[in-house]
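Retry 2 of 3 after timeout on previous attempt. Resubmitting structure tokens to design endpoint.
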């Protein structure tokens, strides 16, 4: 189990044929899948965002501030904006233990290598070997 930056308004409800659920949590029963395509290809899909930095997450949080308040993640948009400001500060200075602790941010989110390991493993073990097959 690991923490990941997650922001989505849509989610998979029905798996495509030849799919396997790779990750799930209390927010979504399908957070990641692997699928064999009809053409013998491979697809890995995630609902979470290993490519996001905290600055990207801050922008999304600000953009959705009103909706996040409506969903109970804050009492007013200024509260949400303060969280976004903390994320931007932490993105600029990743050693800020005070902000990491305040927001309960796991080390796998702070470390870009750990955050992207799953996608990298898939590329190395599934995609790259196929690149050399005629």
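Retry 2 succeeded. Sequence:
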């Amino acid at each position: 189990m690991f923490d990941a930056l997650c922001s989505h308004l849509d989610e998979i409800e029905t798996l495509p044929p030849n799919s396997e659920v790779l990750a799930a949590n209390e927010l979504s029963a399908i957070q990641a899948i692997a699928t064999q395509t009809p053409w013998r290809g491979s697809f890995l899909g995630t609902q979470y965002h290993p490519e996001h930095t905290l600055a990207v997450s801050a922008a999304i949080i600000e953009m959705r501030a009103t909706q996040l308040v409506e969903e109970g993640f804050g009492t007013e948009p200024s509260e949400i904006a303060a969280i976004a400001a903390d994320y931007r500060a932490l993105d600029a200075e990743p050693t800020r233990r005070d902000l990491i602790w305040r927001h309960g941010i796991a080390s796998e989110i702070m470390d870009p290598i750990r955050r992207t390991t799953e996608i990298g493993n898939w590329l190395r073990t599934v995609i790259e070997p196929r690149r050399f097959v005629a």
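Attempt log closed. DSSP finds six helices and three strands in the chain.
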